[in-house]
Amino acid sequence: MKILVTGGAGFIGSHTVVELVNAGYDPVIIDDFSNSEKSVLKGLKKILKKNIKCYSKNCNDLKTLEKIFIDENIEGVIHFAAYKAVGESVQNPLKYYENNIGSTVKLLHVMNKLGIKNLVFSSSCTVYGQPEIIPVDENTPRQPATSPYGSTKAMCEDILRDTIVSGSPLKIISLRYFNPIGAHPTAHIGELPNGVPSNLVPYITQTAAGLREKLTVFGNDYNTPDGTNIRDFIHVVDLAKAHVAALNLLKKQADNYYDTFNIGTGDGVSVMQLVKTFEKVNKIKLNYEIGPRRPGDTEKIYAITTKAQEVMGWKAEKTLSESLKDAWRWQKKITKK
Ligand code: WQD
Q1: Residue 32 and residue 47: Cα distance in Å, rounded?
Q2: What is the pLDDT confidence band of residue 85, given thresholds at 50, 70 and 90?
Q3: I need a surface site. Which of 63, 86, 235, 244 has the fewest CB within 10 A?
Q4: Residue 256 CA, ligand 1 centroid: distance in Å
């Protein structure tokens, strides 16, 4: 089954391409490389021992999308392509609305027109904002997003749901990611942050590699056991496998189907616990200091993952230690170059 992977050269997209091939799917990538590198395609070839077809295009273009669907006989889509820098989205909201919303709307147009039904959408736990009740399940009320980036994820979920309510024969799953970390165990692919990483783990690995002077822990005066924020850190390979499980579920569904799933480990881990685990498993002393809170940070959030387990037959298997070992192995590899 030919699957179009938009943003397939990105961090989560590339790891998903590997798991799609491993599961017998035939992925085709479309990526404009605005937030990814062509070297990812070489990494994929090293892992998969074959070239993965890639269109270096922006999927916010109706004609381009339609031509690829027809030329490649696409039967399903995993839609990753989106801008995702929370901070940048506050500075430049229109860039985020135009790209993240626009590409999703155009994708739906093409899929409806050509009768292509299977769509897995990359959503985010950011739609929960700061939930009153922790951990969160899929019925936890969404909160107003704390950034335009988060708003685009919530709006796209609404657009998908409204499309199904309108009677479209599409079959759609939204996967709400918690915090993806780590890298492929082969170290042929991994996270390639643009500029200074805003996310915790790449900042840690770059600090450990000497590329950053020190890590700043954004606040230790929160209402948590050690005062630092709590998150649900999930290995990117486990996250990638959830997309295969979602496609397998869609194949069994009747037309006009929509559902959402939390994709996390179900374990809440604090920033400080992660820092200490990184030091321990990689036998490294990390240079860090406690600094002021980062505006907009959620105090604590982690997932109830029962639904994904019961309905999709998926659960996270890798440990935090494995994720942090894989993240460090990848950083050492790309720093060596
Ligand atoms: C995690 C924790 C920080 C950096 C965001 C998006 C989410 C998804 C993942 C895209 C927080 C702390 C971080 C640092 C720190 N993105 N931290 N020092 O904010 O939970 O989620 O990224 O899909 O949608 O909202 O991830 O890694 O930025 O932060 O102390 O240098 O690490 O305060 O508590 P976040 P993060």
Answers
A1: 22
A2: confident
A3: 63
A4: 35
In this prediction, residues 123-130 reach a mean pLDDT of 94
**Ligand 1 neighbourhood includes 299 CB (under 6 angstroms):** no
- Would you state the structure tokens that stand for residue 271, as one six-digit string? 């920033």
Beta partners for 119? Answer: 77, 172
User: 11-22 and 39-48 are packed helices; what angle lies between their axes, rounded to 10 degrees?
Assistant: 20
C-beta of residue 120 within 8 angstroms of C-beta of residue 143 = no
Give the residue whose CA is nearest to atom 30 of ligand 1.
Answer: 217
Q: What are the C-alpha distances in Å from 337 to residues 38, 301, 332?
A: 16, 37, 9
pTM above the 0.70 mark? yes
Q: Kindly state the tokens that stand for 209.
A: 């590699």
* Residue 149 among the catalytic residues: yes
Pocket probe for ligand 1: among 200, 221, 234, 274, the residue whose CB has the most ligand atoms within 8 Å is: 200
What DSSP letter does each residue of 182-219 carry, written as one string? ---TTSSS----SSS--SHHHHHHHHHTTSSS-EEEE-
